[in-house]
Write a structure and sequence with these properties.
single chain, 239 residues, alpha+beta, Heat Shock Protein 90, 2 domains, 8 helices, 5 strands, elongated
Length: 239
């Protein structure tokens, strides 16, 4: 009986430690999201506005310049400013995607895939979305979108793939996100420490986000080629 009581107490202690660990992870992730949002606002309200004003001033100057060569140089400079403005706005939107907060996860993923294809036209993207049910909670939507972003980034950084498959499925009981590629693959590690030691820090971040929302992460990869990550999150009422 004493052994049974001791085992029960140890199990309860382990469960409490696990819950505390998950809560810490959740709070750290929330803090990172708040920092992302602040950086996005600072980019928009600071450098983007300054560069936009400079671009308009250059345009006004160019109209009054009589020397064609100087006018051409000013136009070239203005084009460079416009490109910088575009890149900063893109960074800000990736840090805090307006479409995610205004229209939800499904639309955000579809829009991101369109932009991703424009940046990487040689990569064939196969996407499938099956969606029933109501809008997700913001916590789960943000986590899954970040996982989706990191998964695609990993394909570009490491996989050397020519094709990638993205699947998003949601019903009243759960939501699942799957990203697979036909790239070089890798040996799937056993735990987070092994992931970090192998340099798969993106997968470490994915694992932390999955844990924070009570989900399950499956990594199917082989050194002979190809990799797949699948995230499944059970949904309670109102999520």
């Amino acid at each position: 009986r004493r052994q049974a009581e001791e085992a029960l107490r140890e199990a309860k202690d382990a469960d409490m430690r696990n819950q505390a660990h998950i809560e810490v992870q959740r709070r750290l992730i929330e803090q990172r999201e708040q920092e992302r949002q602040q950086i996005a606002r600072d980019l928009h309200d600071g450098p983007v506005q300054v560069l936009t004003a400079a671009s308009f001033n250059l345009q006004s100057l160019t109209v009054n310049v009589q020397n064609p060569q100087m006018a051409g140089e000013l136009n070239t400079l203005r084009d460079a400013l416009q490109e910088a403005i575009h890149e900063l706005r893109t960074y800000a939107q990736e840090l805090r995607p307006p479409i995610l907060f205004n229209f939800g996860l499904r639309r955000a993923i579809e829009a991101h895939l369109e932009g991703f294809h424009e940046k990487h036209p040689d990569l064939r993207i196969h996407a499938e979305v099956r969606w029933t049910g109501q809008v997700l909670s913001e916590q789960i939507a943000i986590a899954l979108f970040r996982i989706f972003q990191e998964g695609l980034n990993n394909v570009i950084k490491h996989a050397q793939a020519s094709e990638v498959w993205v699947s998003l499925a949601r019903d009243d009981r759960q939501i699942s996100l799957e990203i697979a590629d036909n790239g070089t693959g890798f040996t799937a590690p056993r735990d987070l420490l092994a992931l970090a030691r192998q340099g798969h820090l993106g997968l470490v971040g994915i694992s932390e986000r999955v844990e924070a929302i009570g989900g399950c992460l499956e990594i199917d990869a082989h050194s002979s080629g190809g990799a797949r990550i699948r995230v499944t999150v059970p949904l309670a009422d109102g999520q």
